[in-house]
Amino acid sequence: MxxxxxxFQSVTKQxxxxxxxxxxxxxxxxxxxxxxxxxxxxxxKTTSLRxxxxxxEPTSGTITVDSQDVTAVPAAKLRRSMGYVMQSSxxxxxxxxxxxxxxxxxxxxxxxxxxxxxxxxxxxxxxxASALGKRYPSQLSGxxxxxxxxxxxxxxxxxxxxxxxx
Length: 166
Description:
This protein is 31% helix and 22% strand. Helix 5 crosses helix 6.
């Protein structure tokens, strides 16, 4: 039996409107598993993802990542420990593609040269030409921007990668 990486235990998120966005979600996601949340717009898919990295706090219940309650970890530290690819790429428009990809390793204390070297390697991993590293997000197609967003989150080699409509 595989070990759980992410667990939701009776997790509910209720906004002030009164209708729960997520209601008593209980599930376990095994290490190494690819799990997809499928459902209509407004059913709580994004809210559930955002509760894993504490961009949204649950109203009740417990979420654990690698057996640790996410509320026991400072939110910024938790977020830096996992990748999160947003619905829109979330790239910084004033930074080059390479510098966008190197962002999380730099925040985690990796030197600039090493972070940029890893960023260059990841361009190939996500199927982007090396020359695109010098460009800015506005100079890329939407699909290319999304790939840069994926590369940015892979750069720190996270144990968890959350992807919202990749």
